[in-house]
Amino acid sequence: MRRFTLSELRRYDGKEGRPAYVAFQGKVYDVSSSFLWRGGRHQAMHNAGEDLTEALRSAPHGPELLTRFPVVGELVPEETA
Question: Using one digit for the tens of pLDDT, what is the confidence trace for 66-80?
Answer without folding.
Answer: 889 999 999 999 975
